[in-house]
Amino acid sequence: MTSATLIPMDSGSSTKPVIIGTAGHVDHGKTALVRALTGIDADRLEEEKRRGITIDLGFAHLDLTAADGTQLRLGFVDVPGHERFVRNMLAGVGGIDLVLFVIAADESIQPQTREHFDICRLLSVQRGITVLTKSDLVDTETLGVVKMEVEDFLRGSFLDTERALMVAVSAKTGAGLTELKDAILSQARSASGRDSAALPRLPIDRVFTMKGFGTVVTGTLLAGAVRKEDELEVYPTGQRVRVRGVQVHGAPAERAVAGQRTALNLAGINPDELARGMTLGPVATLQATDRVDVSLTLLLSAKTLKDRARVHLHSQTMETVAEVALLGEKQMPPGGQTFARLRLAEKALLLPGDRFIIRQFSPVVTIGGGVVLDAAPIAKTKKQVLVPFLESLSRRKPDAVLQARIARRTHQGLSVTQVVKETGWRPEFVETIAGDLIRHGSVVRTGNRLVAVDEVAALSVSLERSVAAFQKKHPLAGGMNKEQLRESLRANAETFEYLLERLVKEKKLAVSGELVHPPGKGVVLKDEEAISKQVIESAFSSAGLKVPALDEVLAGLKIDRVRAQKLVTLLLRDKVLVKVSEELVFHRDALAGLRSRMAAQKLKSPKIDVAVFKELAGVSRKYAIPLLEYFDRERVTRREGDARVIL
Prior knowledge:
There is one protein chain. By secondary structure, the chain is of the alpha+beta class. It has 4 domains: 175 residues, P-loop containing nucleotide triphosphate hydrolases (Rossmann fold, 3-Layer(aba) Sandwich); 81 residues, Translation factors (Elongation Factor Tu (Ef-tu), domain 3), CATH 2.40.30.10; 95 residues, Translation factors (Elongation Factor Tu (Ef-tu), domain 3), CATH 2.40.30.10; 120 residues, Winged helix-like DNA-binding domain superfamily/Winged helix DNA-binding domain (Arc Repressor Mutant, subunit A). Helix content is 35%, strand content 28%. The protein is built from 19 helices and 35 strands. A hairpin with a 2-residue loop joins β34 and β35. The chain is elongated, with a radius of gyration of 34 Å. The relative contact order is 0.06. The N terminus is likely disordered.
């Protein structure tokens, strides 16, 4: 990447990065204004220079120092004004901190003035300056009339002249530029800084190749920091890349931080594998999605939006087609607001808090926008459950958001890793919020999972009831097998073990080996039963794969048939013995040994027929066929014709 005249920012620099975007109608002087402020021509394409209009995004930068010594590094994103290039404009305006809303004094408010204004409001741009360009082309009286028209147009918005400045300038004569720079300094100083400690996220707006460097991408770093040699993931493709070099506003740097215009030289990927709309982020941490639940607002100028309508969706630099499933009425009136689920034609990396724009499918005009609330929606959630959940998320209080996300997963709970995927929060932040919820008694940690207290209590009751019901139905079984119990409750292993341990400590349940039973209700073997149990196990253990008939083993015991059968049931439940077929029972060690021999055989040949298996196991066909069918069920083998493939 080529060097620029700017001095590279040190990683410990106190310079504050601020991204400024332009907005306004075509040929209202946005690019000329940026050039007058920075000395940089943001039009980089030959066609742009030939036609005199901006077609794609352009970039420039400027360093300013405030009167109090505050250092500001301003990155300018110059967007197209022509209606045919609004989609390019949307790719540039998503990550800005401050907008220069440009209106030509000789033309006043025009169609794209209105559309760009709507887009800025829908994207919740908080700060801006209205710039009346080409002031040298009109007299004082005309300029006054235009000011009044613009003031009326902006009234009540974030650009209302009671809260935001309006500056008349001429890029040609330089009139008003000093006043404009002062206004930019004032607004930029008070702009909220972005979180450089968050997970890094860089939406790509340009991809190109530089001789001697290879693949280069650019974008505005929304959050976090990126350093040389960092490994990043390309969302949504999942490819991994290494950062060979970093530039900030055209100057080499050791790292880029949130809020900076950033160029990355990437290793491990070709330019044709990347495109505008993809996002670079931390490896194996976040998750691309094709479903998002959102808060949606429709413009007053839009037509009624019907349920299941198709729209063009824009967020950051990404654009795709989406279907809008309204969660309220089947039609959304102009000016309305509701919750909706957007089904995207292509996966993208979207996170809660991301703003978006929707444009009518045809003709393509901006009709609304909103904010992403949930990028990991659960399918087939009933509206009466989903709407209150989204209301909790819309308040954006971290503790309430985390509690709502944990609660909706019922007794399955959420791991910290899953919370990070759903929210984009750093693990340390999740741990802090979770700790507060645990101390307040609303959440329990079970292993690595966070589970709502109410859900833990409900699962605890179900667990006790299941064990009691099983004991009543099978009084001689000695208890319910642990894994069978867990599966019947559909509980994850961590929460199940946590609850079981707690209930045992509270003496509400007891555990004997792999069996769970009420206290005092386990199987207590008499001396002759304990001896008989050992005899049964030894008979099958010593036999290996040439097992005796079960009836013959039981007939040689000194206890009655009923008690003998009970002992076999215990051994089967403890998985000491394994029933392969109705007639054949094997000791688990014998089957484990055969599995090992099968794994060794796979190295020689992945396929095995009955003859080879008989030789490998040292058994007759009478035993070989049931054993192979058992291995099929256990997915050790897969049948293909008369042979098996060892998996």
